[in-house]
Amino acid sequence: MSRILMAAAALLLTAATPAVHAADDYVTNADEIVKAADWAKAEVVTLKLDEHSYSPNKVTLKAGQPYKLVLKDEGEEKHYFTAPEFFKAIATRKVEVGLAEIKAPYFKAFELKPKGELTLFFVAVTKGTYTPYCSIEDHRKKGMEATIVIE
Ligand SMILES: [Cu+2]
To answer: How far is the CA of 80 from the centre of ligand 1 (A)?
Structure first.
């Protein structure tokens, strides 16, 4: 590589957005919490999405308890489960979608198409009240907001 090219490459590298580590707001020791949980005792909670509500629209969870949250779009349209604050309050294990599993430290939102379904495996961690909502157009205004309490 010529010197000019190398200099250009170095410049590009330094100009790139620097990585910021530790999303401090999220549960940083999620792996540890997930590993310690007794998944045989995981509780299944089902949340259905349609036009324009979540049902049930209030869910109460216990801190320290593992859960499988099943989200199902039973409507005619696609809907979102947008819940950045809720995702910060849990230790995420994985998401199952059909025959696939997604292992990621945390999420911000899920989009479900009509008849779409996914299962979020997590341990409830931080006590508080969270309000997942549908971020599509005016769906939230029309009633697509749920309350999840971790106590
Ligand atoms: Cu919606």
So the answer is: 6
- Cis geometry, peptide bond prior to residue 139 (ω within 30 degrees of 0): no
Q: How far is the CA of 133 from the centre of ligand 1 (A)?
A: 8
What Å distances lie between residue 73 and 37, 63, 64, CA to CA? 28, 27, 28
Per residue in 56-82, pLDDT (tens digit) is 999 999 999 999 999 999 999 999 999
Helix residue spans in 37-106 (DSSP H): 84-88
Tell me the two tokens of residue 65.
Answer: 């308890």
Report pLDDT digits (tens) over 83-113.
999 999 999 999 999 999 999 988 999 999 9
pTM for the structure as a whole:
0.85
Going along the chain from its start, the domains and CATH numbers come out as 25-150 (2.60.40.420)
CA–centroid distance, residue 111 to ligand 1 (Å): 9
